[in-house]
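Supplementary Text 2. Reproducibility record for the structural model of the 132-residue chain.

All settings were left at their defaults, and a single model was retained for analysis rather than an ensemble. We include the record here because the model underlies the residue-level annotations in Supplementary Table 4.
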Amino acid sequence: MDAKLVTCFFYEREKLDETVMVPVRLIATQDETIINSIIRATNWQTEVKEDQFFSLQEFPKSLELFFQTFSDPRKLYYERRSRQYDRLSIEKMRIVTPANTIRAFAAMFLEEPHGTTRNYTALRARLGRRFL
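Retained model, structure tokens:
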């Protein structure tokens, strides 16, 4: 359960009575496929963009680990999840986002630098069909 929510319940406990019900789901598994399926299925109460689910796949996880193999002063950080490094004192120019990675891939390997700055959503959809 979210720590903020638990804290809220604690501080508001005087207002809580038997009419307040809190649904709780406990799921224990080490299977990444099941974990990802549960995350996808239970994250529809707020808008979650398809790009955010991309971070659950194996490739972005592997890419994040690959970035961690480099040492200073050329170290870069692959931000698999939005604002993943916000709490750390890392220069913003050292953080590589999935969007920038896709743009760089299209510019360099598909030789389409002119098409990477206009419509990211269309670029992502086109590359998704071919490469992602």
